[in-house]
DNA sequence: TTGAAAGCGGTACCAC
DNA sequence: GTGGTACCGCTTTCAA
């Protein structure tokens, strides 16, 4: 299917290609009459410039890459929307890639995006080894990393205040009178995971409570993971009366597990999540959690990327996203 | 940041550009010795071919466009994963676009994807006017449409058996003894919406039950929409004992609404959804629903697109995706 | 087996 | 104000 080119438009309008280009891009001097003639031809042929060709010469593709562990995880679609909506405002398209948390896939993906000449990359929950990420950042810019600590002058970083969030969450449980507080977490050593555990530990420490290793139970960051992890925790340590989870998905799975164990939430076990996904408010009991504005994260990341594109020499930034506590029925 | 080009590799290896191209693409005759020399240079420079340039000459970008109403809606991320995973197997990337169910945005998006020279487009839940879609299909190929009826020799269609699914669902409720059965639905006139309502009506008709217009309540296809719609339905028609919803999100919202109205599910109201999203099994009560293999839909759509790309002259296909009933706690 | 030249569809730069 | 020409980085065609 031969598509119409700038040449066709030029021929129909009886002008040169450059004139067409000027008319379309509102660039350079051009008489009103010619411009109208050209635009008429454009409309008649339904002409749209080939973005590849434009990209070749301008070295800009108006495309960014968004790398996430798994778009199926309820956290990421909202971030993706933020990125896309902000991108659309600036006529940018988004290439979405999943890594399944595999560092090699992640690195491969980033190089592939670079080969496709995206203008920038936003990567969330990166697990790539420091050194490989460094090597990549040396060859590509700009990059925005979400929830990963990293220093490089091509890389801006956006971090949720995971430590504070976890601290607030556990403090709330403590203030409710709980003293045996467990945590369900996916031990994947990402920054957000580590910080949430540290916040949990800090809160306990400030209450002069002992750190009981066996109160921290490992599990996948999913409904099923939380379900299994709570069952394990309660069978090992039946004295536990409250649980803080790595994310809402795990928390909702845990609530179901409690239900299946004939434990009432929050009377027998209080459960507190992290993220505030849409489902959290509708669940029965509705979930107390730490709210993270996922959409805003996406928006901010995209804005940062565009700024870096416009001002390549400006120093990179580290942005902290604030969080707050949402108390619902699952804690009391 | 100047990236290394084929020229750099050629210079380092001491050969011409075409020889490098041949070595990389395993195309044409080339001696083993030269090839090794070239590959060494490629490795040393970390060279990756510019995909834009490749696309310009081959007229293939190895990129497809995926158009969805809203990636935030739990149904779509799984389909997107199916598309991407299948795409990745063939070295394809996916441009993801949201339309927010706005026909104009949808059409604009498709033209924009065409301008970016994606090799094909997969569009889900299209609401674009027939005539505009037709005009677009005349200028672009190939296209795969999911859940929209459309005939064009550039367009393959994938349909979930919505009619049968709705029929099965309502039949189950009828077999449980329910006779006052309501439906909560987003009246957006998409194919899937219309067919699900028709299936509901057909099931009632086959039981010689009257069609009560006021039993069909309109609502957004979201948690909140289902929540509000159930409240409205029960206040208008308190005699209703069972409800079938357009999708699981509405069903889960409805369950919460029933809870807030002090109605037991399923004892006071039975609730049946559609889609079987991951959350359905974890909710309390867990949700009876019509299972749709969303991941498979994405996979199949991508495969179909690749086939159409490989065999442009083969006639297009219409593929039906089968469904089945999953009975859980919310009906009995 | 290898290289030179043309061209994909645009834009930038420089004449006129 | 408008047109000619070079060139972005690659593959295809054809000649050597």
Please give the structural blueprint:
Two copies of one chain form a homodimer.
Chain A: H1 6-13, H2 17-25, H3 32-45, H4 51-58, E1 63-68, H5 75-89, E2 93-98, H6 103-115, E3 120-124, H7 130-139, E4 143-146, E5 155-160, H8 162-175, E6 181-185, H9 191-206, E7 216-218, H10 223-236, E8 242-245, H11 248-260, E9 270-272, E10 289-291, H12 294-310, E11 318-321, E12 324-326
Parallel strand pairs in A: 1-2, 1-3, 3-4, 4-5, 5-11, 6-7, 6-8, 8-9
Antiparallel strand pairs in A: 10-12
Helix pairs in contact in A: 1-2, 1-3, 2-3, 5-12, 8-9, 10-11
Chain A binds a DNA duplex (16 and 16 nucleotides) through helix 2 and helix 4.
Task: Describe what you observe in this structure.
2 copies of one chain form a homodimer. The first copy, chain A, has 332 residues and is α/β, with parallel strands linked by helices. The first copy, chain A, is 45% helix and 16% strand. The first copy, chain A, has helices at 6-13, 17-25, 32-45, 51-58, 75-89, 103-115, 130-139, 162-175, 191-206, 223-236, 248-260, 294-310, and strands at residues 63-68, 93-98, 120-124, 143-146, 155-160, 181-185, 216-218, 242-245, 270-272, 289-291, 318-321, 324-326. In chain A, the strands form 3 sheets. Chain A has a 6-stranded parallel beta sheet, sandwiched between helices. In chain A, strand 3, helix 7 (130-139) and strand 4 form a beta-alpha-beta unit. In chain A, helix 1 (6-13) crosses helix 3 (32-45). Chain A is elongated and about 85 Å long. Chain A starts with 5 loop residues before the first helix and ends in a 6-residue tail after the last strand. Chains A and B meet through helix 4, helix 5, strand 2, helix 6 and helix 11 of A and helix 4, helix 5, strand 2, helix 6 and helix 11 of B. Chain A binds a DNA duplex (16 and 16 nucleotides) through residues 5-7, 15-19, 21-22, 25, 27-31, 34, 49-59.
């Amino acid at each position: 299917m031969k598509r119409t080119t700038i040449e066709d438009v030029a021929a129909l309008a009886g002008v040169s290609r450059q004139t067409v280009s000027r008319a379309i891009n509102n660039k350079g001097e051009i008489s009103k009459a010619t411009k109208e003639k050209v635009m008429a031809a454009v409309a008649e042929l339904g002409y749209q410039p080939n973005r590849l060709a434009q990209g070749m010469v301008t070295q800009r593709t108006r495309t960014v890459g968004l790398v996430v562990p798994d778009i199926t995880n309820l956290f990421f679609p909202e971030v993706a929307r933020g990125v896309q909506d902000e991108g659309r405002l600036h006529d940018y398209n988004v290439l979405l890639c999943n890594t399944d948390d595999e560092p090699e896939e992640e690195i491969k993906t980033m190089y592939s995006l670079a080969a496709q000449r995206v203008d920038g990359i936003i990567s969330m929950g990166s697990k790539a080894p420091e050194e490989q990420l460094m090597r990549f950042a040396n060859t590509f810019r700009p990059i925005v990393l979400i929830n990963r600590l990293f220093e490089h002058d091509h890389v801006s970083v956006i971090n949720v205040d995971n430590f504070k969030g976890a601290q607030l969450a556990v403090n709330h449980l403590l203030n409710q009178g709980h003293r045996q507080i467990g945590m369900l977490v996916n031990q994947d050593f990402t920054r957000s995971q580590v910080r949430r555990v540290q916040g949990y530990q800090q809160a306990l420490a400030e209450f002069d409570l002992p750190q009981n290793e066996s109160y921290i139970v490992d599990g996948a960051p999913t409904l099923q993971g939380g379900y299994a992890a709570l069952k394990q925790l309660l069978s090992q340590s039946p004295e536990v009366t409250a649980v803080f989870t790595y994310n809402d998905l795990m928390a909702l799975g845990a609530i179901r597990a409690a239900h299946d164990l004939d434990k009432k939430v929050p009377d027998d076990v209080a459960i507190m999540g992290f993220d505030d996904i849409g489902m959290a408010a509708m669940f029965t009991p509705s979930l107390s959690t730490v709210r993270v504005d996922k959409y805003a994260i996406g928006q901010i990341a995209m804005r940062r990327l565009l700024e870096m594109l416009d001002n390549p020499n400006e120093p990179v930034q580290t942005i902290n996203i604030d969080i707050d506590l949402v108390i619902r029925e699952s804690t009391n």
